[in-house]
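pipeline/complex-builder :: batch 7 item 3
reading input block
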Amino acid sequence: MIDIRLFRENPAFLKEACRLKRVNVDVDAAVKLDEQRRDIIQEEENLQAERNRVSKEIGAKKKAGEDAAEVMEQMRKVGDRVKELSQQRGEIEQRLHDIALSIPNHPGPGEPEGAGEEQNVEVAQWGKKPAFDFEPKPHWELCEKLGMVDWKGGPKLAGSGFVLYKGTGARLERALINYFLDTHITENGYTEFFPPYLSNRDCMTGTGQLPKMAEDMYHCEKDDLFLIPTAEVPVTNIHRDEILDDSQLPLYYTAYTACFRREAGAAGKDTRGMIRVHQFNKVEMVKIVKPETSYAELESLRGNAEKLLQNLGLHYRVLQLCSGDISFAAAKCYDLEVWAPGCDKYLEVSSCSNFVDFQARRANIRYKDKETKKTVFAHTLNGSGLALPRAMIAVIENNQQPDGTIRIPKVLQRYMGGMEVIGA
RNA sequence: GGAGCGUUGUCCGAGCGGUUGAAGGAGCUGGUUUUGAAAACCAGUGUGGGGCAACCCACCGGGGGUUCGAAUCCCUCACGCUCCGCCA
């Protein structure tokens, strides 16, 4: 959430954020509401102060055995008026809050401006597209032939957009998850968590999925719980409503979870294979850091994700997202896209974002700064490291051989019981 | 699902309906003492909001109510603990 003080201090900044993120919000209406709110507060608090003062006098009078009926009647009227004002204020604050929640985070200075993905800027590349002396096949054919996925099973069990991995397919998925997690906890200094897959409304609002993304999430009405669309939600919310000690920061957390997305607006896109599905696996990295370090932390976070692709020997490119393509809550974002020769396109396997204080403000994650002795909002970041099944697709399609077998990258072999080739 | 108990500041923990923003600890910060450290002693130390300011207001799990006045009484919801039932 944006700082509501900005409604009176710098509404232009908020309008700019909306314009850059291509979001339409009536900032001027909020500015007016904010003024009304302050007027009411003034009157309300004056009356409360009066009531507090007189009430003490009533106490004193009664103790002295004097009659206080008249002033008590007066104060009853004051109380009624306060109640009235407080109700008015409540309504205004609700509307103000709704508007505040719908204002996106301002992209940091120097972010490329643009309307959509066409304006994203490629900032790095690693490796190159592998050369095949045969026509590389798409993963759905390879998986079918090797019995790695039961393509009928997912739809039969849950519906289209669900995948039933099988045999070496299931094991390869698990190998990638373990490889990613182990790397983060042994080499990159992250602490592993294994959170619930359902989160409550407070968590969803804290990280910014609600109210905007409600349509994209699976919701259990009876319990008012949401299936998490990413581990970012539970992991970032671990410290919701807490004041951390300065010495605890930075916090590096990682978690594997399944992720659930209704993909409400994506009908017809990537329907073939398992590029876009309703349930997928992902290892996520989350950082909670001091403000002055967050942009540097974003670079190292991105480095952690990139290293995984490098060790798998997969060619990828890094995009810096333009203002219109950065997510609602983020200030700066890199996407890592891995090359998939069978699909003949780049696939997004990681999105690394700096949210600065936007999520922290919503989720109320603060820390006590030792130097200034102030309680301030922390900065939060997160990034995939990495998202399945796209990483799996890349491994399969890049390592295929003319006979349809698949070489297993060196770093994964120990997780596959020493297996070197699938289908040999 | 039923019954009982509980939820107070960074943490632990008191709290009769009126001067309690909240006793007492712990922690933290500063000071005295010490060759230095520890200990001891003294002082300070919550969050949010309104106002140029003096200052004022709100906050004792969330929401509502009673009252001139609520951390304290009532209702309700959430969470936690204990016991019972049910299931694994």
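note: Residues 38, 41-42, 44-46, 48-49, 51-52, 54-60, 62-63, 68-69, 71-76, 78-79, 242-243, 245, 368, 370, 373, 375 of chain A lie near RNA strand B (CB under 10 Å from a C1').
queue -> next item
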